[in-house]
Every structure is written in C-alpha cells, then in structure tokens.
C-alpha cells in the first residue's frame, strides 16, 4: 500500500479511500465486514462514510455497520483513519424540526454525538461538512469544531462539495480564530468531470488541503460501460442509459475504451490510476459493492500509465487548462 500525508497535516493515509456508501443499501452487513477486512488486510487505512448513508428510513445504517465491525476488535479501530460527514437532516420524513440539519453549533454537537454512538467509537479522525451552509458564519462553525477537538471527539475538520471561494473563506476565518481550519476537501473529480481543476483544487493546494475525489468512475461510465453492455448483453439503465443515448458522449466513451484496450488496460483501473497522477490528490474514494470490485481498485495503485495513454486521455477528456489563465484574465 502507498501512503501520503493528508494535506498539510502529519496524518498518513492510504492513496485509496474506502467509500462505504453502498454498505447497507447495496451490500449486506456480513459482506460489508468482509470487504473492510480485505481492505485493511491490504493496508488501506482511510475509510469514509457519512451520517446520512443508508438513506431514506435507514439513514445512519452505514455508520452502524462500521460500528459493529469496529466492535469485533483486533485493532480495527486503531488502524483506521475514520472519516464521516454531517449536514443533512437525520430525522424521519415528516419529523424534521428546526436546527436538525446544516452547520449550526447546535446541530454539529448533536450530529457528532449521534455518529459516535452509531460508530461505536470515542472519536472521529476527520469530521467533514457534507455541504456549504450559507446561513451559518464560519466563526460559529469553528467555535463548535474547536470545542469538539478539545473534548477529543474529533481530530481534524474537512469539507465536501465546497467551491474554491468557500475553502478560502473558511480557512481565512479559521486563521483569525486560531483554529487549524479545513485539512481536506472531498469533491467530484474524474476524467469526465474536471471542473474542480478551475478553482477547487487550486484553492485546496493554496491552503494545504488534501483533495479526496468522489465518483472517480463518474457513476460507472468510466468503468467500461459500453463493453459491459455489448459483451454482457445487459441494457444500460439510469445515468448510463442517458449518457449512451447521447451520440457525442457515446463517441467519447468509445474512444476512451478503444484507447485503453489498445494498451491492454482496464478502464476502471486506468481511471483511478489517472487520478493518482493529478496534482494535489490525496486519493480517490472507491465504493466497492463486492470483494472483486475492491481487488480491481487495489490494482490501480500499481498501474503506471504510459505517456501515450496520459496524452490520449487529455485529448479525449480535455480539462479546463491551467488555472486561472485558461478561463480568466
């Protein structure tokens, strides 16, 4: 396993992040535990979840599955850098009350205690804001976070889905408060969705945040979707069906799959390996539903993409160019 520092911190994390969003809704508890055992056995030490995972009436279920896994002992909790997120309302539909969502000091306190209980642990290593809260000032947010740090309930704070200017606002205010501020940003970033290169990643690098891309395969579209539907005889559905119905997108994906086939590379593994070459990236989040999907993601760590492939990928999926020269005076 390869490790790196999380942003400007001294914390060492694996260059792949185990995403757990499928644990519960797609993968049962026993299989989820087996995947986590395999990940830890391979040296993957960075696990990411969120309080709302489980979704619908089962919000919180994913954290509970991690909690029962930690409770098995064997050094599991001590070896894992545990990241979770908060923002959304955890109440059942129709039962929501004011102050049960977003980033008020009241909800931060409530949410962290509830997550600690579900996770069966006494602390969270990386506590992340799942979305921007435009109604709560960062002075209040950092006051609440500093209390949690002093209590030993969390160690670091991170953001998710923040624009570049909010990363700047958050950390400028943290500096004024004498707080450590954000140490990571979790954003959508992959070959097909490169807008983070315009503002988010430059801001993260400027302020010393590690970048943790989510949806590295763009909802499966970068995992060889055309080949799978052609060879497997399966019909694409949902997001994949919409994408393949668009002639320009289908042609782009076909060029992508043809390029990788020419070089004997698996699309999903190549997409992850590409992210690992990008400046400022700590590691992409992989969300395996099965042990086989985890094995495929781990192989990406050993993959060295030839220069011809890197050039070809840039031609097929051109990014916005260097920031800010490509889009601003």
Question: What descriptive keywords fit this protein?
Answer:
42% helix, 329 residues, two-stranded antiparallel ribbon, alpha/beta, globular
Give an overview in words:
By secondary structure, the chain is α/β, with parallel strands linked by helices. 42% of the residues lie in helices and 14% in strands. It has helices at 29-41, 61-70, 76-79, 105-119, 138-151, 164-177, 200-206, 225-232, 238-245, 247-262, 267-276, 291-299, 307-316, and strands at 3-5, 12-14, 17-19, 46-48, 81-86, 124-129, 154-160, 182-188, 210-214, 285-286. The strands form 2 sheets. An 8-stranded parallel sheet has the order 9-8-7-6-5-4-3-10. Strand 3 (17-19), helix 1 (29-41) and strand 4 (46-48) form a beta-alpha-beta unit. Helix 2 crosses helix 4 (105-119), helix 4 runs parallel beside helix 5 and helix 5 (138-151) packs across helix 6. The longest helix is centred in the last third of the chain and has 16 residues, at 247-262.
What is the topology?
Elements: E1 3-5, E2 12-14, E3 17-19, H1 29-41, E4 46-48, H2 61-70, H3 76-79, E5 81-86, H4 105-119, E6 124-129, H5 138-151, E7 154-160, H6 164-177, E8 182-188, H7 200-206, E9 210-214, H8 225-232, H9 238-245, H10 247-262, H11 267-276, E10 285-286, H12 291-299, H13 307-316
Helix pairs in contact: 2-4, 4-5, 5-6, 6-7, 10-13
